[in-house]
Protein: Endonuclease III
Amino acid sequence: MDMPKSQADPQKIQADHVRKALAKLYPDAHCELNFTNPLQLLIATILSAQCTDVQVNKVTPALFEKYPDVRAFANASLPELESCIRSTGFFRNKAKNIIACCQAILKDHDGEVPADQDKMTQLPGVGRKTANVVLGNAFDIPGITVDTHVGRLSRRLALTTHEDPVKVELDLMALLPPKEWTIFSHRMIFHGRRICLARNPKCADCTLRKFCPTAPTKEG
Structure:
């Protein structure tokens, strides 16, 4: 039986306000990494750590042509792969993780990216954030991706008090319908990149301001 609105959890009411406002602002929000299959999205997401999606998208066309499948990545020369992804930053660790990840996919999953969070997070270099990106966008399995934008906005909008991404993810999961998890993440990321910036948020231009507890009360 539904609880009367007056007795409903205030945080869930807040989450609903945020969800609806973001849906109006960004009806077409989507994953901004370019990919054509789960493996490509997995590789692109690993590369996106501490790197912009724009830069990753500059690197991946040639990368995916050189390494067209999981076996090609698994058998890649480490120095050659490092050279291909150098411009994404932290390229040595990323290259090691990509090769080890693809070797594990070949060995343990018959060459297919597993559509399961627990199995995916057992792969080298794959955490919950990466797994949720791949599950939500390549397999249509809902998941909340907590990157720096989602974490920052969630705290500013009083949807969580936590800094730890896993705790933020669990808080958001409890506040939102599962079918909304993936698209909500995209919309939060869009808003974080465009309006709710880390250092100088554009509060005067923000339509979420009316229910944002951290927005300034006066201009200037």
